[in-house]
Amino acid sequence: MFFKVFKWEFLSGKRFYLILLIYFLLLFSSGGLVSSKYVVEVREPGFYIKEDVTPGRVIDIRWHTSSLWWFLFPVVLAYTVFVFSYELDKGILRAYLLSCVKKRTLFIAKLLSIILSLFIPLAACLLIVYALADPQLFMVDPLEVYVNIPRRLLLCALMLYTMMGIAILSSIIFKRPLYAFGIPMAVIYVLNIVSLRGISKYIPPRCYSRLPYSESIGLVPTEALLNALRIAIPSLIASTIFLITAYIIFIRRDVA
Amino acid sequence: MVISMKEVISVDGVWKVFGRTVALRNVSLKVPSGSVFLIMGPNGSGKSTLLKLITGLMKPTRGRIKVFGEDPWKSRQEIFARMGAMFEDHSPPDWATGRAYLEYKASLKGVKDPEKEALRVAKLFKITEFWDRSISTYSSGMRRKLALADAFIGDPELIILDEPTVALDKEARAILRETIMDGTKQGKTFVIASHTIVEFEGLVTHLAILSLGQVVVSGKVEDVMKKVGIRQVTIKTNEPETVASFLIRNGYSIRVHGNHIAIEGLEDPDEVMAKLKNLGVKVEISETRPSLWEIYAKALA
Question: Which of B211, B226, B241 represents a domain boundary (last residue)?
């Protein structure tokens, strides 16, 4: 039963949105990052260098926490609201529940389809953008271009998960899609802009640290990677609590 | 086929409260197996809420509901293996085709061959002509037919229909009536909430009339008629004008259809016969069942 529901949720009707997401991510990435910046200036107290780096590394450097988060959060929220809130509002949920499907199965299938629907285009986009950014190196040694992709994907997955919690909770609480999208957007952005510490620690998660300019480390468990994962723990716990809350509300609530 | 009159649905002292609004108050009724149970009531009387409670979409605030002996809120998925339902605002996903939707619903019902079953119900309600199109292109009537087909997936024993005739054309209404007739012959149970009740005249065996969230009256149609205090005497005569004018002069409320005159009220056929004897006109008198609308109007009067 779960596989049938998941297949329906993942494949049916959302292709348009997936393509849109890939397209948007691609534009965002290539427009802002694929340029001829081969020299990076590094300034630290008592230290200044000009270093030649490949465009692939430039992406690593510039795709730091905030820029990716500021772009991704509305996308995650909009997509989640579409999958949960919009369908609830339209009574599609009722049409599904007039069958032998369990609410639990439906919730988990929807959650998994959201995660994969956001993560797969992101992964695809990274693969495209890295190759576009450094075509010469890609032709000579593709592995070198993609060496940091595993770490990037792991950290992206963690970031998506931390955003998913609040996005799904909002979709479940607010029945009107506009509120479900607008209210958390406004609250989170305003609180981040005014640098409220508690929220800033949760979103954006500090798990998307910069990579060293000159090292290709992949998923090797360096201290930097472990630190990044450790810092992400509170965000992951908070998101899990949000998801459990959303699940309980979804299971116990009437489907009017 | 021997039809057991065992209860399929039992609603016992059910309340449903939304904030400060009491949608249902102390509702109790029993739906026997093999019956065609019509739920009538004005807008906002709680018909749809009651059906949503029966289908396990909502949890009662107080009271107990049993469908096939199980609590629908806790065992909805088990109950739906034997039950089908459609609601007035049934909204399948716009982006799917009718065929894909029905096949998916058939698979969710655990039907062995979902494609075959989807085709069967689609043929039943004649939707195969347009079912390969996206649902977003359907008219409201097409959507209703799709919802009806959905309710009959898996050949369920119990079918719940909320306003099933709304937006349906004459042909589709006739198909629905025929399907219900066939279903009752097979011992299936139908629970219908509807304003348009002409289609169900003659089919309905049980009736519940709701008003302001309360059951005004419920039970077998004959029992409801007794409780409501409505009888109908029909007179067949070759001289309807003479008989009609005599009856009006004697203060009866009548309706004339050709050679038939129906007297509404609590009249005793023998008493009417005795009066007409003196008129010297040949008449045949019988007691007939009043229309559902008449019972409904009388109950709410």
Answer: B226
